[in-house]
Design a protein that fits this description.
Elements: H1 2-12, E1 17-23, H2 33-39, E2 44-49, H3 57-67, E3 71-74, H4 82-93, H5 95-103, E4 110-115, H6 122-130, E5 148-151, E6 155-159, H7 171-180, H8 190-204, H9 206-213, H10 220-231, H11 242-254, H12 266-270
Parallel strand pairs: 1-2, 1-4, 2-3, 4-6
Antiparallel strand pairs: 5-6
Helix pairs in contact: 7-8, 8-9, 8-10, 8-11, 10-11
């Protein structure tokens, strides 16, 4: 992460603005204050990506960000219909600079750095705007390893590696990053992550758990055992296959099989400086 931040600082003088990609399910959790600090005086656009996986609560979070004076938009970068919206928001970010350049007789190509925590869809967003698969993508943290300049229609985008905060002061928000796959699963205790996810979903979206797994509530371990019973994840001797149950819950959440879900609360957003 230190190497990535150093590279981004070196490239910042080359860009006219910064696009921060956030996960629409947890925009507060995926906000990295170090990246905001890095942007300095550059104009910033916050993109709430993966809007198809989030519910109407995200619209409230988006409104809180725009009411703070920041530029923000919600999209789904795997949907071609979002291309016009995001391209328009990017152009608006530098509209005054473009007008000033045209008055001086320059048809300037504006350049933007695309940044964010891992697995928020930065490269997918770039490919949407570029009209082809020029940026490497993947449904896991850490796919983009170095910088990639990509030419789009009217502007250039710099894809950067996902960069996490140096520390997690808020463990509640850190869990949200684990749920959505922004933290590498290989360094996590997936037992704890799955149980924490079931606990939070039972408080906010119990009906989704009931519909998918027949869960009516209970302690996290009891709910995980219900998942195993419902899905037939059993070992010899009638023991529960907890590992398969945990993976099923996490995978179902990440792929939207539990429906559209927003994890963060408006209080989480209002406590940040966008």
């Amino acid at each position: 992460m230190t190497k990535a931040m150093r590279m981004m600082r070196e490239q910042l003088s080359l860009v006219d603005g910064v696009i921060f990609v956030l996960d629409a399910r947890c925009p507060a959790a995926s906000f990295n204050p170090k990246l905001k600090e890095l942007a300095g005086a550059k104009p910033v656009l916050y993109v709430f990506n993966k809007g198809d996986l989030a519910d109407e609560r995200t619209d409230i979070l988006l409104k809180a960000v725009t009411e703070s004076g920041a530029a923000a938009i919600k999209i789904n970068s795997i949907n071609a219909s979002s291309k016009r919206d995001i391209a328009g928001a990017i152009s608006k970010l530098v509209a005054k600079k473009r007008e000033a350049a045209l008055e001086k007789g320059f048809n300037k190509t504006f350049r933007f750095m695309v940044a964010g925590v891992p697995n928020t869809g930065k490269s997918t967003l770039i490919n949407l705007l570029a009209g082809s698969g020029r940026a490497e993508t993947g449904n896991k943290a850490g796919v983009t390893r170095g910088k990639q300049w990509v030419r789009c229609d009217g502007f250039d985008l710099l894809d950067t590696p996902g960069t996490m905060p140096p520390s997690f002061d808020n463990q509640y928000l850190a869990l949200h990053l684990a749920y959505v796959g922004s933290i590498n699963d290989d360094i996590l205790d997936m037992d704890d992550i799955a149980l924490a996810l079931l606990s939070e979903l039972s408080e906010k979206y119990l009906s989704r758990l009931t519909e998918r797994y027949g869960i009516e509530g209970g302690e996290p371990l009891e709910m995980l055992e219900e998942v195993c019973r419902h899905r037939g994840f059993m070992l010899r001797g009638g023991e529960y296959d907890y590992e398969r149950g945990e993976r099923a819950v996490i995978d179902d959440f990440r792929k939207g099989r539990l429906g559209r879900i927003t994890l963060d609360k408006v209080e989480d957003i209002r406590g940040l400086r966008f």
